[in-house]
Amino acid sequence: KPYVIAVANQKGGVGKTTTAINLATALAAVGRKTLLIDLDPQGNASTGLGVTKEQKARGTYDILVSNLPLNEGSYDTAITNLQVTPTSVDLSGAELDLVDMEQREFRLRDAIRHSPVNWDVVLIDCPPSLTLLTVNALVAADAVLVPLQCEFFALEGISHLTRTIERVKRALNPKLEIIGIVLTMYDKRNRLTDQVADDVRGHFGKVVFDTVIPRNVRVSEAPSHGLPVIIYDHACAGSQAYVSLAGELIGRLRER
Amino acid sequence: KPYVIAVANQKGGVGKTTTAINLATALAAVGRKTLLIDLDPQGNASTGLGVTKEQKARGTYDILVSNLPLNEGSYDTAITNLQVTPTSVDLSGAELDLVDMEQREFRLRDAIRHSPVNWDVVLIDCPPSLTLLTVNALVAADAVLVPLQCEFFALEGISHLTRTIERVKRALNPKLEIIGIVLTMYDKRNRLTDQVADDVRGHFGKVVFDTVIPRNVRVSEAPSHGLPVIIYDHACAGSQAYVSLAGELIGRLRER
Ligand SMILES: Nc1ncnc2c1ncn2[C@@H]1O[C@H](COP(=O)(O)OP(=O)(O)OP(=O)(O)O)[C@@H](O)[C@H]1O
Ligand SMILES: Nc1ncnc2c1ncn2[C@@H]1O[C@H](COP(=O)(O)OP(=O)(O)OP(=O)(O)O)[C@@H](O)[C@H]1O
Ligand SMILES: [Mg+2]
Ligand SMILES: [Mg+2]
C-alpha cells in the first residue's frame, strides 16, 4: 500500500507543482516506485514532466468521474521509477460532476486503494483551491506537504488551510497529518522573506523543513524543456535544495 | 450603470489581487467612484485594503447566497472614492451553495444591477480557478483584465482562459471582451521573461498593455501594511508602473 502525500496550498503560485515534480523525481531516483497524480486542471505537473497531448486525453478526470482504473490512466515518464497520471482542462468540469455523486470525497482514495500496481509513494499536485478536488486529495492522503511562499499574502492563508486539514481529519480521514511545511522562493535580499520565515518557524516549529528552496531562475526555466529542474540543471541552487528536501522527507517517511 | 471589470486568471500567484487593488486605487485617485469586490475566499484584496475582521463578516458570501444588497456589504476604505466588498473564508462554501440555485451564474450580475449606489467602475478580484465564482464575475463583467506572469506555466494556461471567456460570451454574456492583458513580475535579468513577453505580444498584439509591471520588492511589502503599493511607496518602480497602467486603462475605457 503506497504512502500518499498531497502537495497542497490554496494560495496560488507558491510552488506546489514545482515541489511535487522535483520531489517525485528525487524519490524515483533513489529507487522508490513513485506516482505523481496531477489534480490541477491547469495540467502543469503533466507538462513539467513532458507528457504528450494524447496521454493527457485519458487521466485524472476519467479516474474520478468514469471509474477508469488508476493504472490505466498512468503513464511512464522519461524518469525510471516515476509514473504520472496526467490531466487536461476537462478536469475543471469534475468539480460540478462530482457534487451529486455517492461518496464524492472518496473517489480518489478508492481509485488508489483498488489499483493493482504497487507504488511505494504517491504524490498529488493540488489546484489552488479548497474545493472538492483538493478535498479528494486530502481524503486519499496519509499526509499533506505544504509549500509556503515567504510572502505576506501566502502567510495569511495558512490558517485557512490548517483548519480545512483539521476538518477533513475529523470527518473523513483520521490518519491525516502535515508531514512538513517547506519555505519556497526564498530571496535573502528581501527583508520580508526573513520576517515571514521567522513567523512560520515560530508558529509551526519542527514541522517546517530545515531545507529552504531559494528563488532561482533555472527552476522557472525547466518546465519549458519538459524536465524537472533537478534533471534540467542538477547543479543549480534550486536543484540542490530539492535534493536536500527529498532527503529530509525520506527521513520523515522512515520515522512513520 | 458602472463599467464592470473582472480581474481574472486561473493560474495562481500571477498578480490578480495586486493589480486589482492598485488599479482600483488609481481610478479612485482620479475621481472615479470605484468599488472593488473581493471574490476570492482567501480575502487578500480585503486585507490589502486594510479591511477589519468585523467588516469581513458581512460581504460577498451574503450578497451571492443570501441576497444581501451589494451596498450593504460594501464599506468605505481609507482612500477617497474607493469602497470594497470584503470576503472571508465562508466564501469557499459558496461554490457548493450556488450549484443548486436558480440563475446561479447571474447572482453577482443582478446584485450589481439592483444596487442603488452609482459607482463609475466596479473591479472584481477573482480566485485562481474557473469555477462558479469566476463564472459569476465573467457574467457580471463588461470586460476582463488578465494579469499574466512572464513564466512558462502561466503562458500555458492562457488558452484555457480565453476559451472559457469565449464560452461565457456565447452562452451568458454577449458583451464580454478582454480589455487588456498586463505582463506582471517582469524581471529583465531573466531570459525566459523576454521570451514569454515576445510570445504573448506576438499572439495577442495590441490587446497587451504597453505598460509592464516589474518584479519589485516594495510591491510585496505593501500588503503587510494594509496599503496599496501606490500609496505605501508611490515613487517605487512598481507604483509608477501601476499608475501608468491605470492611465492606459482609462484611455481604453474612454474609447468604449
Ligand atoms: N524556487 C523557485 N525559483 C524561481 N521560480 C520558481 C520557483 N519555484 C517555482 N517557480 C516558478 O514560479 C511559478 C509558480 O510556481 P508553481 O507553478 O510551481 O506554483 P503552484 O503553487 O503550483 O501554482 P498554482 O497555484 O497555479 O498551481 C512557476 O512559473 C514556477 O516555474
Ligand atoms: N510586481 C510584483 N513584484 C513583486 N512581488 C509581487 C508583484 N506583484 C505581486 N507580487 C507578490 O506576489 C504574490 C502573488 O501576487 P498576488 O497575490 O497579487 O497574485 P494573485 O494572482 O492574486 O494570487 P492568487 O492566485 O493566489 O489569487 C504576492 O505575495 C504579491 O505580494
Ligand atoms: Mg500548480
Ligand atoms: Mg489573489
- Count up the helices of chain A: 13
Secondary structure tally: strands of chain A: 7
What form of chain A results from the Cα inertia axes?
A: globular
Taking pLDDT < 50 over at least 5 consecutive residues as the criterion, the unreliable ranges of chain A are none
User: If you compute it from the alpha carbons, what radius of gyration of chain A comes out, rounded to the nearest whole angstrom?
Assistant: 17 Å
List the chains of the largest interface with their residue counts.
Answer: A-B, 40 and 40 residues
The helix/strand order of chain A is EHEHHHEEHHEHEHHEHHHH
Report mean pLDDT of chain A, rounded to a whole number. Answer: 96
* Structural class designation of chain A: alpha/beta
Largest sheet of chain A: 7 strands, mixed
Strand share of the residues of chain A? 5-15%
Largest sheet, spatial ordering of strands of chain A = 3-4-2-5-1-6-7
In oligomeric terms, what are we looking at?
A: homodimer
* Estimated helix fraction of chain A: 40-55%
